[in-house]
Amino acid sequence: MDGGPAVMIRSLRGRLFTGLTAIIVLTGAAGGTLAYLWAYNEAIEMQDSVLTQIGTFAMNASTRQSQPVGGVDAESEVVLLELGPMPHGSADDRRLWTLHDGLHDDVRHGRQIRVSLWSRPDGSRFAVAQGDEIRVEIAGDMAIRTLLPFAALVPCLLLVTALVIGRSFRPVFRLAEELDVRRADDLRLLPGESAPSELQPFLGSINGLLERIRAMVEQQRRFVADAAHELRTPITALSLQAQNLDPLDMSPAARDRLEALKSGMRRTRHLLDQLLALARQDLASSEVKETVHLDRTAMAVVADLLAEASARNVDLGFTVAEPVSVSADPVAMVSVVRNVVENAVRYTPDGGRVDVGVYRESGQAVLQIEDTGPGVPPQDVERIVEPFYRGRRPTGDGSGLGLSIVKRFVDRYGGSMEFKNLTGADQTGLRVIVRLPALD
Ligand SMILES: Nc1ncnc2c1ncn2[C@@H]1O[C@H](COP(=O)(O)OP(=O)(O)OP(=O)(O)O)[C@@H](O)[C@H]1O
Ligand SMILES: [Mg+2]
Q1: Is there a single domain that holds both residue 263 and residue 291?
Q2: In 3D, which of 301, 284, 379, 286 has the Cα closest to residue 344?
């Protein structure tokens, strides 16, 4: 898949993540602030009630002296102030005396304090006081702890969100990947069962399109096959007519023309045969699976080509012929073996050698052909299986379709083919290996 759709998906993912991050962070912040304020107020109220409790104890205590109240939490700096039966002492103490019983905010020695005033039955008064700074500090300390769960939870939630979003989008990327690595002629439908329901309409559309492409490709292949097939009849008729001219008397110049005409017709017929063989490979309806004995097929092909080989003094023979069979279309199999052996014979110079081998190797039926020809230039090896490609310096007649037929055949029947240039001390050559799944 190229940039466009991938970018859109990424931004979809980004949008989801940004939105959820904003929600999580805002919720965390709002929740944290509320929890902090609530805990802070609670802590202040609790300290008020501590002041009141200390006052209650002091009411019944025997001591009548101002003193710091130590004990549970020395740092809370609560002080018991004895104010006496009448206002006396500093201005702050006098003012305190005038306040009525209960909780008040006041100032003492220039510091804000919270104070709880009490009157004893005998008329003497006392106060329990605490500095505001320390109260605020204690309340702040307590309230800040309520933020801890939020501080831990928000990053965890963000992480989980990122993971969940990443996971949810995985099927989309898997789908893109699957389509990416597909060969152009692989028009199988995409499996839909495991995909999430949001992708189903999309999958349905892609599969619909694949189906239409498949029908169109099949139609075109059938057209090529039909056209090649239909053209064979008139070409055969023309060849016959040309042959009928053979016994007639004619000038050497006319005979030359006749020979040229006949060889042109042979080439055309060969091209049509090759085209038909190639088109048949692609037709879904011509998928035939019969038991084919590869060794026997090879022997028949070799026997057929022996005359042509010996005419050019090429030593064509078998190195090994193990009985091994494959499941394939027998007609196509003959055309495949013929094309490879024919190439070896045709591209090997006069007096050369062509060795054919058929054997079984780790569950594969192997057809191996070695010749003493020029081999294929490395830069051509990839391309010689393309239809109509005949190399940079084509020699002899040929349509350039032979190896395409072989390639499509091995692809169709789950095999493979391999070319290796042989470079010996004083000779060159090409080794072609065709592998097909062997039958037991
Ligand atoms: N054994 C070989 N030695 C050297 N070159 C080869 C050999 N086999 C194939 N080639 C090269 O690969 C090209 C493609 O081969 P392919 O069989 O597809 O087409 P062709 O032989 O040219 O035509 P066709 O087989 O359709 O009559 C050939 O033209 C030739 O250049
Ligand atoms: Mg060929």
Answers
A1: no
A2: 301
C-alpha dist (Å) from residue 155 to 28, 129, 150: 10, 42, 9
What is the secondary structure of 171-189 as a DSSP string? HHHHHHHHHHTS-TT--PP
* 248/241 Cα distance (integer angstroms): 12
In the structure, what pLDDT confidence band is assigned to residue 1 with cuts at 50, 70 and 90? very low
171 ligand 1 Cβ < 6 A: no
| Residue 9 burial (CB count, 10 A) | 15
Same domain membership, residue 291 and residue 415: yes
* Cβ(401) – ligand 1 distance below 6 Å: yes
Cα distance between residue 270 and residue 399, in whole Å:
8
Judge whether 97 and 87 are in contact, CB under 8 Å: yes
123-165 pLDDT per residue, tens: 889 999 999 999 999 999 999 999 998 899 999 999 999 999 9
Indicate which ligand has the atom closest to the C-alpha of 422: 1
Q: Which structure tokens are listed for 28?
A: 């965390």
Is the CB of residue 336 below 6 angstroms from any atom belonging to ligand 1?
no
365, 295: one domain: yes
**Residue 54 burial (10 A CB sphere; 0-12, 13-18, 19+):** buried
**pLDDT averaged over every residue in the chain:** 90
Q: Which domain holds residue 248?
A: 199-280
Confidence grade of residue 430 (pLDDT, cut at 50, 70, 90): very high
Distances in whole angstroms, Cα of residue 361 to Cα of each of 295, 296, 354, 411, 436: 14, 18, 21, 19, 10
The domain tally of the chain equals 3
CA of residue 321 to ligand 1 center, whole Å: 24
pLDDT bin (cut points 50, 70, 90) of residue 72 is low
Chain centre to alpha carbon of residue 128? 73
Out of 280, 312, 334, a domain closes at 280
Closest ligand to 400 CA? 1
Closest-CA residue, ligand 1 atom 29, reads 390
Q: Considering only CA atoms, which residue is closest to atom 30 of ligand 1?
A: 390
